[in-house]
Amino acid sequence: MSNPFLAPSTLPYQLPPFAEITDEHYAPAIEQGMAEQLAEIQNITRRRDMPTFENTMVPLESSGQLLTRVLRVFYNKASADSSDSTNALEEELAPKLAAHEDAIKLDSALYWRIAQVHERLDELGLNPEQRYLVERHYTEMTLAGAGLDDAQKTRLSELNARLSTLTTKFEKNLLADTNELAIVIDDAAELDGLSPGEISAASQAAADRNLKGKYLITLVLPTGHPWLESLTNRAVRARVMAASRARGSRGGEHDNREVLLEIVRLRAERAELLGFDNHAAFVTADQTAKTPARVAEMLDRLAPAAARNAAAEQQKLEALAGHPIEAHDWAFYNEKVRKADYDVDTSELRPYFEAERVLQQGVFAAATKVYGITFSERTDLVGYHPEVRVFEVRNEEGTELGLYLLDLYTRDSKRGGAWMNELIGQNTLLEHPTIVTNNLNVPKPAAGEPTLLTYDEVNTFFHEFGHALHGLFAHVTYPRFTGTNVYRDFVEFPSQVNEMWMLWPEIVNDYAVHHVTGEPIPAEVLERVRAAQLWGEGFATSEYLAAALLDQAWHTLSADEAAAVTDVAAFEAAALARVGLDNPAVPTRYSSTYFAHTFSGGYDAGYYSYIWSEVLDADTVQWFEENGGLSRANGDRFRQFVLGLGGAGDPLDAYRAFRGRDAVIEPLLERRGLVA
Ligand SMILES: [Zn+2]
User: Fold this and answer.
1) Model's pTM, two decimal places?
2) Which CATH code of 3.30.70.2190, 1.20.1050.40, 1.20.1250.20, 3.30.450.40 fits the domain covering 12-147?
3) To the nearest whole number, what is the mean pLDDT of the chain?
4) Distance, CA 492 to ligand 1 centroid (Å)?
């Protein structure tokens, strides 16, 4: 029996032969792929000749083709259509793949050869993409610790292992405390304000824990619980808020305070070992931000304006409530103001958002109008699940661009959320085309019923399609730079920009048509939606910034400074007071003891990224508006300078070339209503 991963696919666009792939094929192909790549790396490091771009960088970029081929398909499957067997394999593979990556990234002989090429960068006559490739590999291996001596490497791997244990412990404590702190309600009357569906969910949650006849409010990750906006009982709201904020700091076995203090100390030590002042300096060195000072500059500029707007919103809420607003009151009165002043009920929009029309006349049509690309469904090609649709994407002049796979509906085998990934990443070195997928989690309607999307789902659709465009447009030589393989604080930028077309008049008037009457969505409804978007931005920006600032505050400590911190709550309060985000009615989106992004989720010293890329996004939207909005010329320029680059150059240099200057923060301030 042959394994379909062992050779490149012969289907159009090298589409993986899904009809032939079964779960049994993954593990052996991955094992063989790792072994092949290590052998390929050895062929590079065994050489005794002078390291050059051709004999070192090119074979490095060509290595691991089988592994890449199978892993892209496997991870797509594991997230979009998992099974017990893919779940088990994913868990089993995690440490093996981490060890495999370390073996390459910490290979001293490979590092030595790349460093030799890096040293002679100016003499080798390389083109800009080739130079950037050398720089990226050299930087990544340096940051991983490939340049350390043996004793330092030993300490580094001790630190990495201990940090991995601690971040896992943080996550487990948080999960346990989140479960334990769920609020038990005895009487349904206390849930007044919730919908019947929410009340029955609370009843079911209680029954699941053998609390028959009672109701359970389970906590969600951020400080604010979604039910706080509708629960009319103030005492219940106060209980929910108190429980949410107590997570990880109650003493006992699930307390996260000592765990996070040790994480902070060890990260600082590791940063110093690698030659940086602190962990944030280490992380941002490999982001477009480059230094914590530049992150601080942006956050410090936003914080006072956000705090000021939140205070103004608070006055309005207090006038309505007739009493001081506390943290647990905010969402409740905020929603009342939204309904009274803006009269927006987002559920009234759904009949205008029929999924197929949103796709064809909205998402696709916008891309055709802006970039000239066209879409045709390829029912002859098979996706990884019967619900997946395959579209061929062509340039305006008819040349092939790639495949776009759409997987719209939710199902038990799919994880939550929405995302884009690449099944094949374009590069000319290996002659790979592009295949991108978008996954959403839209509930499937009853048979014969149309799929009507919510406002947020339409927004998500445009957002994820922005990632897809980034993947489709990238035109690079080397696999390392394919598609969306860019810095974390840049990767959300193209997707955020694509959201602009959702409410663009020429687009929305075409797709937002009532699915029964055929009437276009009334202009005044759209106007109310647009106006309502600004309401609540003071609070939303403040709670986000507070978390981003906390993340930076912990990670700009030196190892000595970190060792001196013993009181988590006091440190947190001082950090927030310093920037004026200490309004008790506007708590941080995450407190340190339940800040999973930064202490277990891979956004350490990087939670600022969301607003960092939104600065670029708002500045870009302004550029489109200044230059006549939706036009092919504007689309071509954005594609040529920014989207088409993929990861093959410095993104901020590309942005400067596109915009004629660096991005400025004013358009974001305006968008969020933060202008004085
Ligand atoms: Zn995104």
Assistant:
1) 0.92
2) 1.20.1050.40
3) 95
4) 5
